[in-house]
């Protein structure tokens, strides 16, 4: 037997002002998107903002539906909108903001769900380009990662589907 040890590396920031300027601007867009979330059932607002290589920012918010699981997470709304509206343009970063309704602050940043992580990894593979991930929990602390692999080290990729 052989043990495999996986390590992830994240940057921790105490407040928005500590983030690099581009990350600050992207996070503000994610916060605005969270305010626009349609979350009548969970009462949990999530917003995402995607920065494209050409400087365009695409926002998305969670969109719930009474016929669960017909809704969609904010991250996938933003990623799919970017892919559909700006095909062929690399995604360089995604910022994610989340908070329970009426309380714009959590003690920890909220990580993307497994489905969103898988979609984010597909965009990294699709464009052969790392996507920076910045997260916050309302007005709390911020966590940043240089790529999606930090969240999903054993990513499922299309390479296993190709016939040799």
Low-confidence stretches: none
Strand order of the biggest β-sheet: 1-6-5-4-2-3
Number of helices: 3
Question: What is the CATH class?
Answer: Alpha Beta
Q: What is the averaged pLDDT score?
A: 90
Tell me what portion of residues adopts beta-strand conformation.
15-25%
Distance from N terminus to C terminus (CA atoms, Å) equals 29 Å
In the residues, how many domains can be counted? 1
Number of strands: 6
Descriptive account of the structure:
- With 164 residues, the chain is of the alpha+beta class.
- It has a single domain (11-139), classed as Cytidine Deaminase, domain 2 (3-Layer(aba) Sandwich), CATH 3.40.140.
- It has three helices and six strands, in the order E-H-E-E-H-E-H-E-E.
- A hairpin with a 4-residue loop joins strand 5 and strand 6 (142-145).
- It is globular, with a radius of gyration of 16 Å.
- The model has no long low-confidence stretch (mean pLDDT 90).
Supply the key terms:
alpha+beta, 164 residues, Cytidine Deaminase, domain 2, six-stranded mixed β-sheet, globular, 6 strands, 3 helices
Q: How are the secondary structure elements laid out?
A:
Layout: E1 11-13, H1 21-35, E2 44-52, E3 57-61, H2 74-85, E4 91-100, H3 114-127, E5 132-137, E6 142-145
Parallel strand pairs: 4-5
Antiparallel strand pairs: 1-6, 2-3, 2-4, 5-6
Summarize the structure.
This protein has helices at residues 21-35, 74-85, 114-127, and strands at residues 11-13, 44-52, 57-61, 91-100, 132-137, 142-145. The protein is of the alpha+beta class and 164 residues long. Strands 1-6-5-4-2-3 form a six-stranded mixed β-sheet.
């Amino acid at each position: 037997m052989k043990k495999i040890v996986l390590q992830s590396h994240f940057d921790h920031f105490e407040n928005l002002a500590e983030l690099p300027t581009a990350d600050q601007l992207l996070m503000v867009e994610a916060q605005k998107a969270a305010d626009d979330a349609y979350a009548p059932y969970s009462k949990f607002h999530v917003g995402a903002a995607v920065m494209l290589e050409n400087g365009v920012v695409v926002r998305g918010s969670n969109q719930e539906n009474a016929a669960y699981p017909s809704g969609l997470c904010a991250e996938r709304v933003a990623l799919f909108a970017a892919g559909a509206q700006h095909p062929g343009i690399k995604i360089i970063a995604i910022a994610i903001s989340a908070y329970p309704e009426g309380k714009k602050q959590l003690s920890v940043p909220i990580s993307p769900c497994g489905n969103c992580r898988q979609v984010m990894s597909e965009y990294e593979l699709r464009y052969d380009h790392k996507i920076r991930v910045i997260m916050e929990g309302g007005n709390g602390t911020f966590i940043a990662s240089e790529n999606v692999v930090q969240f999903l080290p054993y990513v499922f990729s299309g390479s296993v589907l190709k016939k040799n």
